[in-house]
Amino acid sequence: MRVSRVQAEVNRQSVINVASQLFRQHGFDGIGLKDLMAGAGLTQGAFYKQFASKNDLAVHASARAMQASLERWSDAASGNPEHPLAAVVAFYLSKGHRDELQDGCPIVALSADAARQGPEVKASFEKGIGDLLELVQSWMTPHDDLEARARAMAAMSTMVGAVLLSRSVNDPIMADQFLQAAADSIMAVSERAPEAVAKS
User: Fold this and answer.
1) Which of 5, 78, 101, 172 is the most buried (most CB within 10 A)?
2) Start and end of every HTH tetR-type domain (predicted)?
3) Contact by Cβ (8 Å): 141, 192
4) How far from 159 is each of 21, 24, 55, 128, CA to CA, in Å?
5) Cβ atoms within 10 A of the Cβ of 173, count?
6) Which DSSP category does 200 fall into?
7) Looking at residue 159, what is its pLDDT?
8) What angle, 0 to 180 degrees and rounded to 10, lies between the N-to-C axes of helices 84-92 and 172-188?
9) Average pLDDT value over all residues in the chain
10) Long-range contacts of 132-137 (CB under 8 A, 24+ apart)
11) For residue range 6-57, what is the model confidence (pLDDT) as tens digits?
């Protein structure tokens, strides 16, 4: 049966959404096309009608995951407009976010993989990282100077590294300490921050 253009686009978006989750869970090379398509309820035969290659899908899935992260950061910040950075730090460095593999931060889950991919995938990561960095910089005081940019970069690097390290150890106490130490460090240098971020 011939699939309509509308249904084909629905199917394409479904594959991108599922791939953005499954790539975060398994890595770009840790899951094949058959399982990616099955996750979207489709057969592998339909893949090449929608995407030029697995790399093409990785580009779109990376962009989708980055956009989802930007929305989650924005939502967290809007919940505490007086201290948006503190709100995002509390969300990002929480045990709940640490344990979210499919829906968690794509920078943590896929940066090492992205470094081994082609320029198109790297461009998706660069755009997404740039958008998040701009958001963090807007919460620094003043937000339009080089020092604010450097502090935003340091804050993002600390957050990503803490979640990565927290995920990589067996000891639950050490895992939680990485998160809390990072939160404390970021808030100590933020001029807009409250005195402390509540432990998650």
Assistant:
1) 101
2) 9-69
3) yes
4) 20, 17, 28, 15
5) 7
6) -
7) 98
8) 170
9) 91
10) 132/66, 132/69, 132/70, 132/73, 132/107, 132/156, 135/70, 135/73, 135/74, 135/77, 136/85, 136/88
11) 888 999 999 999 999 999 999 999 999 999 999 999 988 889 889 999 999 9
Q: What whole-number distance in Å separates Cα of residue 8 and Cα of residue 11?
A: 5
Per-residue confidence (pLDDT) for residue 47, from 0 to 100: 92
Q: Which residue has the tokens 């099955």?
A: 38
Residues ≥6 apart with Cβ < 8 Å to 98:
104, 163, 166, 167, 175, 179
Q: How many residues does the chain have?
A: 200
Structural domains of the chain ordered from first start: 58-188 (1.10.357.10)
What is the tens place of the pLDDT at every residue in 110-136?
Answer: 999 999 999 999 999 999 999 999 999
Torsion angle in degrees (nearest 10) through CA of 77, 79, 83, 85? -30
